[in-house]
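Bug #77: duplicate submission created two jobs. Keeping one. Sequence:
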Amino acid sequence: TCSAVGATCPELSDAGAINAVFGSLNAGGEIRYRIAVTVPSVRVGDLLASTSISSSGNESNTANNSASDTDTQGVAVVSDMVMAISDGSSTYFAGSNTVYTMTVGNVGNASATTVLINLPAPTGTTITAWTCSANGGASCVFANGSGGIADLLGSFPAGGQLVYQVTTAVPNGFVGNLTATANVTAVGPEDDTSNNVASDVDL
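Kept job's structure:
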């Protein structure tokens, strides 16, 4: 948008680059532009804006006919929930227990909100017991339990971590791969959602 003091704007508003021509600009006159710039999310590096003015008449000083503004790129304030799960083995034995370690963390620089942690029992098995421990300012919903895990947290701080020890009973006669899949979701922007799901497969 354009506003003027002791002068006249050629256009009051528009979009795109400015290339304005004035027939004359009175002594003491002033033209002011307010410019909104959309910065793509994938852009990297400094943001530089440069402008200049010229006239066909005599000027006492042309050294002040150009100006620029440089902004350095800031760090985005976002959360980044990460899920990992492992039983430390590539094989299982039917008729025995398998113990998984499930680790949920926020490696971003902002708290995550409305965080849901989900771990159903692997198909054909039963989660007989689990425990939860917390560090980095995070809090367990429950310290222990049994059955599938579906914990909902109002917030999860940056740098926080929850570690679950999950005991799963694999019945006699179980055949095929033993696959445990855990996931975590959060409301609001995340730096990377590709690390929100993890699986452990035993043959």
